[in-house]
Amino acid sequence: MSGLALNNVTKEFGTFTAVNNVELTVPHGTFVCMLGPSGCGKTTLLRMIAGLDLPTGGAIRLDGEDITNVPTHKRNLGMVFQSLALFPHLTVGENIAYPLRIRGVPKEDQKKRVDELLSMIHLSGYADRPVAKLSGGQRQRVAIARALAISPKLFLLDEPLSALDAKLREAMQVELRQLQQKLGITTIVVTHDQREAMTMADTVVVMKGGEIRQAASPIEIYRRPADTFVADFIGSTNLLEAEADGTGRVTVLGQPVSGVFLGADTRKATLSIRPEDVHLTAPADGALSGTVTFVRDLGGTIETFVDIAGRQIVAVSTPRARPDVTVGQPVGVVLLPDVCVVLAK
Amino acid sequence: MRREAPQKLGDYGPLFFPAMMLIVFFVVPFATMIAVSFFQRQQGGFYVPAFELANYQRFLSLFFANVLGFSLMLAVTVAICCVVLAVPFTYLLTRMARKVQIVWLVALLSVLSLSEVIIGFAWSTLFSRTAGITNLLVMAGIMSEAKALLPSFGAVLTGMVYQAFPYTVLVLYPALVRLDPTLTEAARTLGASPVKAFFTVVIPALRNTITATLIMVFIFALGSYLLPQLLGRPQHWTLSVLITDQAIYQSNMPFAAAMAVFLVLVTLGLVALTVLAGRKGDAA
């Protein structure tokens, strides 16, 4: 099989299990984002794929070949570190040429490849500059070019954009995704920024406590989260206690909701609904009725906080569909069945 | 924090005390030594103020040229040996657990507390025929007969490297601790074996530190005068030994001072050359 496969990969540090029995298949040319809170094991997993840490159990296969115990320098991969790890004693060109020099590529070919890569990252003519003289975004590009110099089979990035300011980070996310699609290279990015993952990934892998909670396309993760952790971690959501009767009928806050997606068929469950799917209406029409407690008008979006029998629900709407409400006013709340997800408690 | 250039004389206040100490304990004695080097020696161990170049003329002989050459060669060899041993050692040390590092650093500091005399006699015992390490080799069956390893150049070199090694490690340690460990990891992901990564990334990134350490150990080794006498033959004696000999046993202060001044000048010249060479390397 072409691509990367992780089978039961486990990493224990003493009694602490950092990565627990991870199963994951990454087909060739896929862009994967590993997402999770700090300490969830995502970086350890990436380091094991790179060979910088060795798993205590399980196997890692690349294009069908077992690379679990192959030393890092023989894996032919490219990696971008959080600190970027550009070599301070080398110029931009020498940094990018480093993997070629190590492999004994002739000088002329090195120069040709470096020029090619520099034009790819829009830094032509920067070859002779010392890396210390570059801006944050430029260093970022140089680190990416250096990792891609040998056209590796695997492109790994550990929180690559965390050092950049918000605007530049958004721009680099788009650039990185476009670059990956152009090169068709299997790419794995570790991040804790869910916006970043949604922007770039074909597959988002949500991790917690060393385990994969869900691995799916960004929109599926968003629309059909596997559990309450994923629902809450990706974007914002309203989590409401619900009761299912086992026949597909679900009761939320004393009101039956029909036709919802059943992620779990337990009696005690949690219903997740995204704020943008909550519709506010006149009190009589709504299945649920509540009181507006706060309105946050951010210009681009308006967040309305509604109290329903002691539970708080947030509804987000655009200025065009501005709900005509004021604090203290009673409103009706409609939970559209096709956008609600019922999850195990 | 903004740094302003000092405006009034009072702004230089914090510098007065160190400047005074430097003048009293360095500039004045050094100036005295330079003056004495031009004085005339009187029989009986004293000297009278004069201005003559005889002391320097006497120094310009093949014998002293050889001694000077040997002293510089020995100091350079010690510096290179120390750095070659200490860089990989310190690099590995900084990658060890904190507790292990502390044990090693305490051990190295305790070597520093040993005086040159103790180090000299300890090594002369270790290199002796009757109680030395060759006896262990005989017991292990590697050698057929115990023999004395001193006096010899190797013994002098070993003693001096042993003495300078802790300094070398302590000077290198901070720079190596600060070195970003992801640099080596990055080199490995880019295709360099750990050994290659060490030579293509760690060493070049530390070039300035290594140059500074070489200069420090070189100067430190140049001043050594006990170990060459304890562990070497007369041909292994350094200029420092001869200076001590002239100053203390021959009571020829002016000649000793002249030799000392000359040694300082040669040393400064060599250090300046090294620094210049380092600058050129940076510019290229």
Describe the structure.
The complex is a heterodimer of chains A (345) and B (284). By secondary structure, chain A is α+β, with helices and mostly antiparallel strands. Chain A has helices at residues 42-50, 92-102, 107-120, 136-148, 166-183, 194-200, 218-223, 228-233, and strands spanning 3-13, 16-27, 31-35, 57-62, 65-66, 77-80, 154-158, 186-191, 203-208, 211-216, 238-244, 250-252, 255-257, 261-262, 268-273, 278-281, 288-297, 302-308, 311-317, 330-335, 341-344. A 6-stranded mixed beta sheet of chain A has the order 6-7-8-3-9-10, with helices on both faces. In chain A, strand 11 (238-244) and strand 12 form a beta hairpin. Chain A is elongated, with a radius of gyration of 24 Å. The two termini of chain A are 37 Å apart. Chain B has a domain at 70-116 and 151-283: Orthogonal Bundle (MetI-like fold). Chain B is built from 13 helices and 2 strands, in the order H-E-E-H-H-H-H-H-H-H-H-H-H-H-H. In chain B, a hairpin with a 3-residue loop joins strand 1 (40-42) and strand 2. Chain B is globular, with a radius of gyration of 23 Å. The two termini of chain B are 34 Å apart. Classes of the chains: A alpha+beta (345), B mainly alpha (284). Chain A binds chain B through residues 50-52, 71-73, 75-79, 81-83, 85, 87-90, 98-99, 102-103, 146-147, 149-150, 156, and chain B through 180, 182-183, 185-194, 196-197, 200-201, 204-205, 207.
